[in-house]
Amino acid sequence: MSLKQKTRELLKKREQVQMGGGEQAIEKQKATGKLTARERILSLLDKDSFHEYDLFVEHEGRDFGMDSKVLHGDGVITGTGTIYGAPICIYAQDFTVAGGSLGYMHARKITKIMDHALKMRVPLIGINDSGGARIQEGVNSLAGYGEIFFRNTLSSGVIPQISVILGPCAGGAVYSPALTDFVFVVENISKMFITGPEVIKTVLGEEISMEELGGARVHSEITGNAHFFAKSEQECFDQIKKLITFIPWNNGQKARPFPPKEPKSEFDIDQIVPSDASQPYDVRDVIKAIADDSDFFEVQSDFARNIVIGFGRINGETVGFVANQPLVLAGVLDCDSSDKAARFIRYCDAFNVPLVTLEDLPGYLPGVDQEHAGVIRHGAKILYAFSEATVPKITVILRKAYGGGYIAMNSRHLRADFVFAWPSAEIAVMGPEGAANIIFRKEIMEAENPEEMRKIKVEEYKEKFTNPYVAAAKGYIDTVIEPSETRKLLIHAIEVSKNKNDGRPKKKHGIPPF
Amino acid sequence: MEKKTKYETLCIGGTQYKTTLTEKFKNRKNWEAPNIKMVKAYIPGNIPKIFVKEGQKVKEGTKLLILEAMKMKNIVEAPVSGVIKAIHVQEGIRVPKQHLLIEIE
Lengths: 514, 105
Known about the structure:
The complex is a heterodimer.
Chain A: H1 3-18, H2 23-31, H3 37-44, E1 51-53, E2 76-83, E3 86-93, H4 104-120, E4 124-128, H5 139-155, E5 161-165, E6 168-170, H6 175-179, E7 182-186, E8 191-193, H7 197-204, H8 210-214, H9 216-223, E9 228-230, H10 233-246, H11 283-290, E10 297-299, E11 307-314, E12 317-324, H12 335-350, E13 355-361, H13 368-372, H14 375-388, E14 393-402, H15 403-408, E15 418-421, E16 426-428, H16 432-439, H17 441-446, H18 450-465, H19 469-473, E17 479-480, H20 486-496
Parallel strand pairs in A: 3-4, 4-5, 5-7, 6-8, 7-9, 12-13, 13-14, 14-15, 14-16, 15-17
Antiparallel strand pairs in A: 1-2, 2-3, 10-11, 11-12
Helix pairs in contact in A: 4-5, 12-14, 16-18
Chain B: E1 8-12, E2 15-19, H1 23-26, E3 38-40, E4 45-50, E5 57-58, E6 63-69, E7 72-77, E8 82-87, E9 94-95, E10 100-104
Antiparallel strand pairs in B: 1-2, 3-10, 4-6, 4-9, 5-8, 6-7, 8-10
């Protein structure tokens, strides 16, 4: 056979494999409103940049008649490519081939590309669309999951790991996404759960649909397992591409800078925050008044909305914003918002992204449900994450900074590098109403008109303590600034923090309050 | 574009804050002091067998019934000594979590 003939043979083979589970299965996939695994990879990566490996891998099933079956690529496509020029390792499970079920070789293909990503220090993207473990391969498929989880953990904090849920992802399979940095879900397509509706019905007698149990909205709003929600696969890919522009390729680098751009003039920083500390506003408007081009890429926008996290740029450099949101639950810290912020802070710290904290909170949320849900343990995560972080850390106190909340939100005491306060800042051990009731209890009780006296004392306390100057007098904040100076000062602070070298005691690892 | 947001108040440290509330916050369960005399299902499951009758005297630790869940036949014992006031389940039924099984007085 001539080389030409052999090449023709190769092309034929390749074409066969690229048909995945065949026309019928592809039609079925399309009928459910989903793209095929190959289409997904091609629409996500730069044009013509994808190169596939291990396409001729064959499965290992020997029992239950599996030995006579051909499973193209063993139900997963793996390869390398680029997104806006950034090198990417990628795998996509192919639901048209045996339901994307994970057998031994399927897992081997995934772990091989994961090893490659770690070795090459490039981001890894996994597209999940699988019915779960391939039962016919027994414990071999469990071994496969274990090998994937182990590599997720090894790569954590070294290379960015992104999980895209574009189909069912059930049972053990959900733990790979859970171990990765960012999970993307799409409405009506993504399903994640440990035990499905069927099992729940037979064992517990509770009836629930897949969507209600573990659909995209559930994980975006209630569980917090997902970080980005999209209405279509294309929107989801656009989100992934945008995320890639904000983050570095590995923990030894910084995110690539962009050309600096002024914020849009419609966000007037002097007009956003009401001076009355009990009045709400949307803190995202403050971020947009500070960030380059008013471009704020929010993470987990629908989960624990009382805290806002996400990426933006200041003078071209990626920063991570952590901001209390007075618009929702008065911006309190609670179990969920602490979890949300703490994880993001650790992400930024691991990948050399400076942290900008915008503070305006009345403290932690009171309530039996919070206490019993472990707000002590959860709330501690945010203290741990800020204390541990050694990237440049800047705090701007916009308004309220009360009690434990003041300490938690990247205070000087947790080693913030710069703490700026607006003149509207109220740094105090608690809000004036509560404080006056305690400090002046006797005077209020003994007064002829206790209500009148309470009002007088609240005003007295406000006058004395709810301002930035008491904290400034101790050096806990570095300076009081005009709101309109905020961006200029942030640019400066980041500029002069470029060579920050702050160590922590050497240890195997800490024991964060998981 | 301009949507009128309806604000509610949330009291933290004596101050009434104008803000919005989340579904999760609104749906939170109010705490109730547990009543040891009300024996409830601590896990959803089946009741294959009931050992006691209404009016029967029981001692702390007396077997009340079997609550079968997750392939385990859990024996539910009387948490206190007393008299069975009411049995709210029958053999063979399935109960959700926190379902009242037996009252003791």
